[in-house]
Amino acid sequence: MAGRRQQQRPIYIQVHQADNVAVIATEGGLPGGTLFPCGLELKESVPQGHKIALTDLSPGEPILRYGEIIGFARREILRGSWVDESLVEMPPPRSLEKLPMATRVPKPLPPLEGITFEGFRNPDGSAATKNLLGIHTSVQCVAGVVNHAVRQIRERILPRYPGVDDVVALNHTYGCGVAIDAPQAVVPIRTLQNLARHPNFGGEILIVGLGCEKLPPERLSTDGERGSILSLQDCRGFEKMVASLLEKAEERLIRLNRRSRVTCPLSDLVVGLQCGGSDALSGVSANPAVGYAADLLVRAGATVLFSEVTEVRDAIHLLTPRAADSETARALIREMEYYDRYLESGGVDRSANTTPGNRKGGLANIVEKSLGSIAKSGRSAISDVLAPGERVRRRGLVFAATPASDFICGTLQLASGIHLQVFTTGRGTPYGLSMAPVIKVSTRDELHDQWPDLIDISAGAVLTGESTVEEVGRKIFLRILEVASGRKKVWADRWKLSNDLCLFNPAPVT
Ligand code: CA
Q: Is residue 82 in a domain?
């Protein structure tokens, strides 16, 4: 418990030497009158994660965190005061013109040779971290029948095939009642098509359609063969539907069950990064540690996806210089512009992102949230940019454009082909995905203590100084290898917790 005692010490964390604010790291916050070793005295009580002024700030003066302007002082703020969100005027959005393009491309870090994981080898040459039977759907109308069949398969058939991890229904709200030919319909359709190709299904996906829907099930088929499709309107009665589904499922389970794990190079692994329920400590502990793990993955040849457009929009000037070439930098700007227009069409801007929980956790606005969020991307060059739901095509660090919504980002990263996701959280969420394991990393030890059976790793030791960012990052990297190899189960999988597939559908519903 030495660590917990240490945590009671008054600690603030200043991220960058130019910063004129710092965040309180001490568990439970600190009372007014607290004296720090540097001589700074708190003028009032400040909750954990919230900001204090390190210098006197005059009205209109820039407030600096991460060495960047996160806002302007709305009135005079004295040294040692709580810089509450109401005192921070948000800066206007950064122009997407005249951004530096591929001007500071990071040199590759030294490669890590010979690192492997134990995965399943798919017929198309890709690898898998789980051996799943996937039952895809072309329209929501069939969800009830599919869910019924999945329960039957789990109870009656799956126990005979111990080599298969689970059966997963891919239910969603698309398929009919939608403007299928609208230009933006390409996003949900591409997402559903790429979910069918997810490596953890081993090329054995089964597709259930209704028969009269706008999205023909053939468009989701990976092999173009009718054999993988069951159309309910071709069946005579409910029981026949279920019997046909169970029969097709078992054919696939027999083949999937023959697979076993083999040693795969890390270049076969695709890892997604996401955050949800962030706080002001996310950018200090969990996200930088995940960023270090991302660097190790890239050095070992793996592919790493980071996402969430509204959470990189205000830090875009720090990302375009890191693009591997100007074409990749332009693609980053293209995705920012696309999302600016999308938000504008709904009458909002990027400031609609922050949640009450984010602000309670000390995040004043989306600018501060973004600067902490991009720490997940580490220090590598950005090798590629994917539009929402596109499949990964280049190794290294990839920006996969998605909304920041946890379940939509998760769904789109799955469509892009992630084998595993690392998810950082400050406030806490029981989030999980049915198709790939999710390693949840908390920003603070107290969240891990509160939810020891939901949070996989705490990055809290970074806040107390007991561990470095690199040490926690290495721990996350090693956990990724264990989870990808099936040697360790994440909490969400132990409890079978998973969020629904939630499509990003920017096109009209009819
Ligand atoms: Ca998110």
A: yes
